[in-house]
Amino acid sequence: MAKYFDVHPDNPQQRTISNVADMIRSGALIAYPTDSCFALGCRLGNRDGLGRIRSIRNLDERHHFTLVCQNFAQLGQFVHVDKDVFRVIKAATPGSYTFILPATKEVPRQLLHPKKKTVGVRIPDHATTQALLADLGEPLLSSTLLLPDEDEPMTQGWEIKERLDHVVDAVVDSGDCGTEPTTVIDLSGGEAEIVRRGAGDTARFE
């Protein structure tokens, strides 16, 4: 059964956050809130967690996983960012955007798009997520919590606990965080390409 953590949306309880971070370090797969919707997350390099995310969401090898980062310095360890891309991302973060970029050697091969060698990265604007990332000290390997054959992600922590009780290890609940996933921008080719329109405003990329 999944553990359930009720976390204050504006002032996350540090003891609770540390408990969740310890579980992630020990190999847990969690459902957690972000500034766009709930996500599934585990430690980078957690092959079992990666496999469980693929199974829960029924994903193929072409799916772009996302590294959810605490800040720009951390993001820069995992993707190649030139000056122009730096300015674009800096202006849009933290926020509800995922950027697809060429990965560095720090990213495990099984996370990369098989042909492009790219990965998604993002810096969320959400107090609970930021507190968790700060305690963890590394990115969360993540994917939107959208179940197969469903049009919208689940919005309630109790519902996630009820439906995914035996396939995730913990549910972190900070209240409703909406149903709209991130806006996805592919910057791997030099020009901004809008892959998915979501919670982030696309005007600056058009």
From TrEMBL:
SUPFAM superfamilies, A to Z: YrdC/RibB (SSF55821)
Q: Which GO terms describe its molecular function?
A: double-stranded RNA binding
Pfam families given in the database record? Sua5_yciO_yrdC
Name the UniProt record assigns to this protein:
Uncharacterized protein
